[in-house]
Amino acid sequence: MPKDHGIGASSKRREDIRFLTGKGQYTDDINRPGQLYCHFLRSDVAHGRIAKLDTAAAAAMPGVVAIHTAQDLAAVGGVPCGWQVTDKNGEAMKEPKHPILAEGKVRHVGDPVAAILAESLEQAQDAAEAIELEIEELPAVVDMKAALSGESLVHDDVPGNLCFDWEFVQENKDAVAEAIAGAAHVTRLELVNNRLVANPMEPRAAIGEYDAARDEHTLWTTSQNPHVIRLLMGAFVLSIPEHKLRVVAPDVGGGFGSKIYHYAEEAYVTWAAKAVGRPVKWTASRSEAFLSDAQGRDHVTTIELALDAEHNFVALRCHTLANMGAYLSTFAPCIPTWLHGTLLAGNYRTPLIFTNVQAIFTNTVPVDAYRGAGRPEATFQLERVIDKAARELGLDPAELRRKNFIPPDAFPYQTPVAVQYDTGNYGATLDKALEMADAAGFAARKAESAARGKLRGFGLASYIEACGIAPSSLVGALGARAGLYEAATVRVNPTGSISVFTGSHSHGQGHETTFAQVVADMLGCDEGQVDIVHGDTNRVPFGMGTYGSRSLAVGGSAIVKSVEKIVAKAKKIAAHLLEAAEGDIQFADGQFTVAGTDNALGWGDVCLAAYVPHKYPIEELEPGLEETSFYDPANFTYPAGAYVCEVEVDPETGRVEVQNFVAADDFGNVVNPMIVEGQVHGGLAQGLGQALLENAVYDAEGQLASASYMDYAMPRAADFPSFAVDHSCVTPCTHNPLGVKGCGEAGAIGSPPALVNAVIDALSEHGVSHIDMPLTPTRVWEAIQAAKA
Amino acid sequence: MAQVSMTVNGKAVSGEVEGRTLLVEFLRTGLGLTGTHVGCDTSQCGACVVHIDGESVKACTVFAAAADGAEITTIEGMANADGTLSVLQQAFQDHHGLQCGFCTPGMVMSAADLLKTNPSPTEHEIRDWLEGNICRCTGYHNIVKAIQAAAATMSGQAQAAE
């Protein structure tokens, strides 16, 4: 019988009421008295020197209040990077300045050159057209291999456009080379992990306001982590101390990583609000979002998998070119390194692994984390090369994986790539997925497709990811310039209702419901008695926000710790009121009882006593019932699973149709199954979107050719069937109190290789061994024709 | 500037607009009805769908001046008279048909129009109908389920009423 409340129940989402009635409050829904509208004049060329920038005529246009360029921002810092990677020679990565407005040079189409403030948005847009901007074009650096030649430099002081050249695990380099040279079989694959645009449906927006009488700044912004923005912008860009800077991230319409980062526009509106003495509002158009939101993926990789005669994996070697774009976005350097190299063991007991990653500046929009971030890139190359190896060796791809899985009794398992997996059972999810996908019936379905002239394929992929993005000590050693814990304050009000203030941020994940379920379960109360507050630095404790599937595993654990402290204190109060020894007080279902007696007190009586301490152990205990915790976990969490995709390919047109998609995930314990399944559905659509449809295409001049929904193929409702998802294989996380692992990114990680493997399986009779994503009809058809030729 | 008058969610409203003012801007900025969203600038995403004289229309494709005299319904006008969720809205909550909520108003307005013209659509028909509404969160799986469930509830209610 499914639970109807608390942990394990599919509680309906309380946040839905406001979203379904048009009462959500997103940043662009907010208007401040006297606000000005901001419009940015952006570069329409990818690379060049600013020869002329004359704003005089524009400044005289109707409604224009101010126009700012880089010279007005001389006292303002650049957009900082939050992660430092050390290269193979022990040197720090190249970290060129990222100015708020372009200084002397423009480095990508969309680089902001001037900001116009006017009484209306239309007036600001009209004025932008009157700015005289002349750019002396320089050759655009677009292709990563060509960038390394250094003939044209994105940053004059970064030779070869090389941000860093990273090796991991460096001491294994020679042993890996030796193992590959002596292996019975080596499978090689060169592949592209295509560049994606995150495209949350709400475009970014920011409103700055300054209260001169109190010297206080407020920024409303579309952020996944308002405290991170307050820290980065306050400390490194605008020199505003935290107590004078409030950052509010109200309802946020999706993020998928792209709203983690500190962006130039939010720093500008905060600065400008003080400079002109009026609130300043900016909302990105979708076209601007394509040219200014950090993009994702964009790796070119060569991978080699060595196997012995018994088909054991003996070594893995990878080389990756990773595109950083024109500037280093907040977490960009850690994506192709510590969130990628450390996942190359996958679900397997490969003993020797070495990877070399070269991070490259190009005249394109900056690249940073996008749903999965590094882990999809690691999983894709690994699951593709394993499939190719199975095909080359004539083995069943499931059996080859099973043979090399880390066995369930080997946990905790120390991988050769730094991380230690706490728990898992990879065979269980693979069995589950194959059963759900009716693997046994595939041959009959294939024959039926063949009778209609169609090619049917069956593909699978296993994945593992590292979630939580913590602990601080580890990420600090790896180059993070921040701690990565989470904070929570639990405030019990005098009549027993509970307000929870969390540093996590919900922008679609349903925290207001899930976190309330956890607290209600622990306190034996109704979920409706618990309110979840997030997204305002003036209300919640210093928190690191939401990304990397960390909210329940890290943020939820902080809430659990605070509730435990609440219960411990409440027991002391109850012991006093019941005139019993503290050790004899038991708490269950919202009742405090004295063991072995029928003496009992309700939750409300104890809460009231905490705030009306007439009869209260005042010598031993402070009044009140409120606790704060900062939870810094012992390890990452490691969700894992197996996905199966079945496709039908029309050989005449190259069109791929997904017939069935099965996801069997081990997320550890699950608090709200309905929400977890929803997260998987969304992840799958993004992963299948990458594999089939989506591609950020830059032409040779650095123009983003796919810069609107007319050109960038967002997945639509008719592109996929319904999905079959399962989370019944559970190995609880061993080091957090809820035993949870995180579910937000899995779908986007496991689905691209499953789909590509399925298409290659379908085309195997034509001898096609690889096609780069997205598998558009053109690419598939061309691959078939090339194989035939 | 021109004067426009229309009925929005049953109330007569009027305002001054520029010739270039889009209906969605008039609703959001002029009337403060911010439930209708803007998610793109190429009339692709469908976050701005409203009903004009009973039909679903992307409010970013219509000038405010062109809607003069029209009957408009927005997401703010979709709940039952007592403020409770309508059958369709309730189905979206029951089946987790929304996550971040940004595309949701457009999805609801679009789905309402579908169910008016096709009271029991197949999964295929629902997916085809939603071609002009983009959701980045749900993978559409639960949106489809919600619309199917709403259709079933509504047809049950219609039968009961007969």
TrEMBL record, chain A:
Signal peptide: none annotated. It comes from Paralimibaculum aggregatum. Residues 21-139 form the Aldehyde oxidase/xanthine dehydrogenase a/b hammerhead domain. The keyword Cytoplasm does not apply. SUPFAM superfamilies: CO dehydrogenase molybdoprotein N-domain-like, Molybdenum cofactor-binding domain. Residues 114-141 form a coiled coil. The keyword rRNA-binding does not apply. InterPro entries: Ald_Oxase/Xan_DH_a/b, Ald_Oxase/Xan_DH_a/b_sf, Ald_Oxase/xanthine_DH-like, AldOxase/xan_DH_MoCoBD1, AldOxase/xan_DH_MoCoBD2, AldOxase/xan_DH_Mopterin-bd_sf. This is Xanthine dehydrogenase family protein molybdopterin-binding subunit. It comes from the Bacteria. It holds the Pfam family MoCoBD_1. Keywords: Coiled coil, Molybdenum, Oxidoreductase.
Automatic annotation (TrEMBL), chain B:
Coiled coil: none annotated. Keywords: 2Fe-2S, Iron, Iron-sulfur, Metal-binding, Oxidoreductase. The keyword Metal-binding applies. It comes from Paralimibaculum aggregatum. It comes from the Bacteria. Residues 2-78 form the 2Fe-2S ferredoxin-type domain. Pfam families: Fer2, Fer2_2. This is (2Fe-2S)-binding protein. PROSITE patterns: 2FE2S_FER_2 (PS51085).
